[in-house]
Specification:
12 strands; alpha+beta; single chain
Length: about 230
């Protein structure tokens, strides 16, 4: 009798168990979605929560970063047959025209976040190495009116078999006043830029770190480590 009763109600029992499993699964999905709103894996977070840093009120936009942009954790980068390791704590900004990536970094005590733009224009595109180095240097004015070329530091090296040219200059950053790669706004005093141009297998790739002077100095080692990690990919 017990055996017959067990056999008779087995389908019902299984049905109840399946229903319970579905309910638990749905609850887990809801929990995961709720949790993702706080740990960066979802898309429902507010701009303020997602932002790696925003400009102070009234501060003009700087190249590579606009006020209240949402950013997310950056993974290792790659473009044009090259790959590189992104430093810890650097976040990926919104997509922009002519850029492979824009990284946003917040430095304690800095007046604004630092932006690192990565450009790739295609094989044999984007101008010559020296031309771009000179253009970047020309985006800075010196407080005493002297030529920025006189204070800029350039270096040529090799990374994993590829020629690399680096440049660093500080002063009043004027590129934010206009231009195809700028964010608009006025000149920014006490700024610094550290850049690198890598001659890769599919053409030059340009890395440009720009921000408040002391913040860029703080990030110099991280930037150099990223450039040192560049390798042929794929």
């Amino acid at each position: 009798m017990n055996i017959l009763t067990w056999r008779r109600y087995t389908p019902l029992t299984l049905s109840m168990l399946l229903s319970l499993i579905v309910l638990v699964s749905c609850g887990a999905d809801d929990s995961d979605r709720a949790r993702s709103a706080f740990d960066g894996t979802g898309t429902s977070r507010s701009n303020a929560d997602q932002a790696g840093g925003t400009l102070p009120e009234g501060h003009p936009p700087v190249e590579g970063l606009e006020p209240d942009v949402a950013t997310r954790a950056a993974s290792d980068g790659q473009v044009a047959g090259l790959g590189w390791t992104v430093p810890d704590g650097w976040r990926l900004g919104p997509e922009k025209s002519m850029r492979a990536a824009t990284y946003v970094v917040t430095v304690d005590g800095a007046a604004a976040p630092v932006a690192c733009a990565v450009y790739y224009f295609g094989p044999s595109q984007g101008g010559g190495i020296r031309e771009n180095i000179d253009r970047w240097i020309g985006q800075f004015d010196q407080p005493d009116g002297s030529a920025s070329q006189a204070v800029a530091v350039t270096e040529q090296l090799e990374v994993n078999g590829m020629p690399v040219t680096t440049v660093e200059v500080s002063g009043t950053y004027t590129a934010s006043m206009g231009g195809p790669m700028s964010g608009g706004g006025g000149a920014l005093e006490d700024y610094r830029m550290r850049g690198a141009i890598i001659e890769g297998p599919q053409g030059a790739v340009f890395f440009k770190l720009t921000g408040p002077d002391a913040a860029v100095v703080t990030l110099r080692e991280h930037f150099d480590a990223m450039i040192g990690s560049v390798h042929r990919h794929g």
